[in-house]
Amino acid sequence: MYYFIELSLIPDESISPGFVMSKVMDVLHLCFVNVQKALGYNPVGLAFPEYRYGVEGKRNTLGTKIRLYAQNEAHLETLSLKQQLRRFEDYVHLRAIREDEAKLGFACFKRVQFRSSVERLARRRMAYVGETLEQSKQHFQGFVEQTSDLPFAHLHSQSSEQSFRLFIAKQAVPEPTDKWQFSSYGLSATVGVPST
Hints:
Alpha-Beta Plaits, 5 helices
């Protein structure tokens, strides 16, 4: 048996759903970091019931709903989402914990990272290899930047104070057999959550 909490973005003409989704994802990330510190792992995974990618004539999107899945109801309760999301109560509807028997199968939602900026890659190489900026840039000569049209959320790193795009891909997977563990973003490349 699986348990989940569903968050639904409330339509508002004055603010875009993508902006609210990004703010909610920032809050969830911090919640998952705290859970990882307490338990040593994150037992809560995310699903996006309205996720859409590659549908002709339709915009790629994470949608307006997020489901947080766990195998133990207590793991969802420890997140204290009502308190954590109180600043967004005009924009997000939080449903009570419910059960899901996973009759529709499983899907994993995983982070996809792209090597997108020569400047950023050169700075990182400088720090790790000890080269000058010019030497590092020379190493990436001929580099072609990667772009993506995958759905994403804009997040803000608390440690580096940088904003970045968290690209998310969905993939059908068999029922999870390994450990039910997720990243600090609630994502996993191998562990699936009940498909919606």
